[in-house]
Amino acid sequence: MSKVKVGFVGVGGIAGVHLENVSKNSDAVIVAVCDIVEESAKQKGLQYNAAAYTDLDAMLEKETLDAVFVCVPPFAHDEIEEKIAKRGIHLLVEKPLGLDLETVQRKAKVIKNSGVICGVGYCLRYLDTVAKAKDYLKDKKIAMVRGHYITSFVPTPWYREMSKSGGQLVEQSTHTLDLMRYLAGEIYNVYANMSLQVLSDIPNIDIPDVTSVNLTFTSGAVGHLDSSFTQCDHRSGIEILGKDFRVEIDGTILTIVDKDSSITYKSKVDFYQEQDRRFIEAVIKGEPDLVLSDYEDGAKTLAATLASNKSNEVGLPIKLPSLAKDKITL
Predict the structure, then answer these.
(1) Of 3, 10, 52, 318, which is most buried with the most CB atoms under 10 A?
(2) Does the reported pTM lie above 0.85?
(3) Contact (CB, 8 A) for 87 and 63
(4) Rounded to whole angstroms, what are the CA distances from 37 to 11, 30, 41, 44, 52?
(5) What average pLDDT does this structure show over 241-249?
(6) Average confidence score pLDDT of the chain
(7) What is the 3-state secondary structure (H, E, C) of the chain?
(8) Section 251-262 average pLDDT
(9) By the 8 A CB rule, do 37 and 12 touch?
């Protein structure tokens, strides 16, 4: 393979970051873009010298592609991934993977059976500081995990509708919850409280503006995640506690504190760029392990966020496997 021939489905929002990264990657070339908004597809096609489409089937039929970036809203996945995977084309799918776990698990089987490499856009895993934290924690017993994702309101119309975004936890704070999973292990159950407290004046909003989730990990560790879009600034991170040690990730900065020392590391990488670089490298080398979150793993993070929504709805703790008939083992 000389250069990885890349296509895009969805060119708005986060796709702009991926388009820029891929365009600067000497091992890849953008050959086609697809978006239901014709003007957007044409504009990005001109910008990156790529063919523009409004129909995925047409793009897949006419273009020779090695990999496709799927950058559509949570409600809009339909059969996009299956169509691409069945043609033997590798995938990078932006999070969240959808809003229905059973559908996502069905997709996971199709993707696995196809043999293609499929990454999911949990970009924080690609931080050099996260790699240091994971290495430090590999032989540690974790007692508690504390996470937060506090930010401002996203004006995108579909974001404010639960049926289209799944709410902030599913659509945004999923990054923090995924990092909690990545560093502390699988989640056993969740118990969530959510409320629309102070932003009900936003037209058509029906998602909570504050969320609090208690989590139990399969290791026995306990955790908590706070999520809100009531603020004018942005803060996110996690704190992992064990006997005589503390690992803090504040944005991209890592601090490791124990009884003998306190060391702070500043990230030296662009995590989006690193994620996309490693995906392209995985495609070239045929090495899926270069991807730090595959589709099945991304489905586990989705399961935890959807379980949290369900917990808030019914007012009870939810064990993650109980959400779907075809269960993911957690």
Answers:
(1) 10
(2) yes
(3) no
(4) 9, 19, 6, 11, 11
(5) 98
(6) 96
(7) CCCEEEEEECCCCCHHHHHHHHHCCCCEEEEEEECCCHHHHHHHHHHCCCEEECCHHHHHHHCCCCEEEECCCHHHCCCHHHHHHCCCCEEEECCCCCCCHHHHHHHHHHHHHHCCCEEECCHHHHCHHHHHHHHHHCCCCEEEEEEEEECCCCCCHHHHCHHHHCCHHHHCCHHHHHHHHHHHCCEEEEEEEEECCCCCCCCCCCCCCEEEEEEEECCCCEEEEEEECCCCCCEEEEEEEECCEEEEEECCEEEEEECCCEEEECCCCCHHHHHHHHHHHHHHHCCHHHCCCEHHHHHHHHHHHHHHHHHHHHCCCEEHHHHCCCCCCC
(8) 96
(9) yes
Taking domain 124-269+301-323, whether its CATH number is 3.30.1490.20 is answered by no
Number of residues assigned to the chain: 330
Tokens standing for 227?
């999520």
Which residues are bridge partners to 5 per DSSP? 29
Q: How far is CA 101 from CA 10, 139, 288, in A?
A: 22, 32, 23
The per-residue pLDDT for 325 is 46
CB 186 within 8 A of CB 329: no
CB 111 within 8 A of CB 118: yes
